[in-house]
Write a structure and sequence with these properties.
The protein has 224 residues and is α+β, with helices and mostly antiparallel strands. It is 28% helix and 26% strand. It contains nine helices and 13 strands. The strands form three sheets. Strands 6-7-8-9-12-13 form a six-stranded mixed β-sheet. A five-stranded mixed β-sheet has the order 1-2-3-4-5, covered by helices on one side. Strand 2 and strand 3 form a beta hairpin. The relative contact order is 0.13.
Length: 224
């Protein structure tokens, strides 16, 4: 067998930090088809469009992990610019998407729009981009409708603001619950396997195993 074919990456990804919150807007694509998805276009849409152009991929979808302003502020604008559909989050975050404008005003973010996705996503459903298939996990706690995208073949997840490198999502916002968040992580993310790598909504990514062993919110060093 041709070794190059065997080891060729099946997917690619780049992170475009956007807004004052330095949110990890993520472009993921299928290497075989060059079809791509933009996850959580929180703002700075011209910067996202430039990254898409430089990457040379064809964006066919927008995926949303949850409804907070720093993850959805540019979604309607990017949807219109690319002519693509929005998938996610879980319908429990509908109230957040209905109030993007008022949320943006609190943080001085202008030009944002309220919107609804073309498809709400729920536990057990799947989404695809090119030849890649991702399973949906509903992981409330940071927000009621937070979801995680997981590709078993790649052993890769995009976890939004559910889990971070060394931390977990904040739960002091309306609809947040620390107990619910820790339950989501321990019952849905940790069982995916220690070898699973993930991109999160802010900061550097990590692996499930590293967080299981060292994350103070999961080891009990910080009380739950």
């Amino acid at each position: 067998m041709d070794e190059k074919t065997e080891t060729k990456a099946k997917a690619g990804a780049i992170i475009v930090p956007v807004t004052l919150f330095e949110q990890n807007c993520t472009i993921i694509w299928c290497e075989a088809t060059k079809k791509a998805v933009v996850i959580d276009p929180g703002g700075d849409v011209p910067r996202i469009l430039e990254a898409i152009k430089q990457t040379g991929v064809t964006v066919e979808k927008i995926w949303i992990t949850h409804g907070h302003i720093d993850h959805v502020g540019g979604a309607a604008e990017l949807r219109d610019a690319l002519g693509v559909k929005i998938e996610g989050p879980h319908i429990a975050d509908k109230h957040l998407l209905d109030n993007v404008v008022s949320s943006g005003e609190r943080f001085g973010m202008t030009g944002v729009r309220n919107f609804g996705p073309d498809r709400w996503l729920d536990e057990g459903e799947q989404v695809t981009i090119g030849n890649l298939t991702f399973d949906i996990y509903h992981c409330p706690g940071h927000s009621p409708g937070s979801i995680v995208f997981f590709n078993n073949e790649l052993r890769f997840a995009h976890v939004g603001d559910v889990l971070f490198n060394g931390s977990v999502g904040r739960t002091d916002l309306p609809g947040g619950s620390h107990r619910e968040l820790i339950n989501s992580i321990t019952t849905k993310l940790l069982p995916l396997g220690d070898d699973v790598g993930f991109i999160c909504g802010h900061g550097a990514g990590s692996t499930i195993g590293h967080e299981r062993m060292t994350n103070p919110f999961l080891t009990g060093e910080i009380g739950n």
